[in-house]
Write a structure and sequence with these properties.
Shape: globular
Radius of gyration: 16 Å
Bound molecules: NADP nicotinamide-adenine-dinucleotide phosphate
Largest sheet: 8 strands, mixed
Strand order of the largest sheet: 5-4-3-6-1-7-10-9
Structural class: alpha/beta
Length: 190
Amino acid sequence: MTRVVYYCASTLDGYIAETDDTIGWLTGYHGTYAGPGVEAMAGTYDRFYDGIGSLVMGSATYEFILEHGREWPYKGKSCWVLTSRRLAIPDGEGADVRLAICPVSEIYDEVVAAARPRDVWVVGGGNVASQFADDGLLDEVRVHVVPVVLGRGKPLFDRPLPGGPMRLTGVVPRDNGMVELTYEIERAPT
Ligand SMILES: NC(=O)c1ccc[n+]([C@@H]2O[C@H](COP(=O)([O-])OP(=O)(O)OC[C@H]3O[C@@H](n4cnc5c(N)ncnc54)[C@H](OP(=O)(O)O)[C@@H]3O)[C@@H](O)[C@H]2O)c1
């Protein structure tokens, strides 16, 4: 079954970007860990990405990717960008970016259909993840926790999650000192 997964990296104190949208704390991070249960960081993203059929992101995340990448990194997969603005779309073969201004519930069926039989990646930010969670449309949170404390920034989630606590389904310490946590969110029966 296609699942909707919020996959990202967060500081120990729950931020996914600095207030000015920079992520030097992530791109510049180097660490090591060699304790029990450790697994390599290398290859983690590629394995996750292979299981993804479509993506959804907010406009700040989209603009960051356009600004910092040489070419569109998600070729061959449909990507919905939530925005109230008429943003530029990457050209080039394989780029499939669709701008949407609506509640996430309105694009949900189309996003899931595009992903099948793979999963949907909610790239971020925290506000978009909260929109999915508010509507009961988020199945899983997978977060690499980076041992950095910012004290302020863009939060992992924008607001409290409805329902009870998430259920921890995975803990993987990485050889670079990050820890991958996986949580399942139980959807309310419809
Ligand atoms: N650490 C990580 O793994 C990670 C992951 C993802 C993102 N990031 C970073 O975290 C930051 C995220 O910033 P953020 O949370 O402020 O922003 P965001 O979610 O990327 O974008 C928010 C913006 O998207 C638009 N939007 C959101 N929902 C909408 C809807 N339903 N309909 C229409 N438009 C909608 C609005 O802007 P407009 O209408 O003005 O366009 C809104 O201000 C970025 O710097 C990003 O690069 C980090």
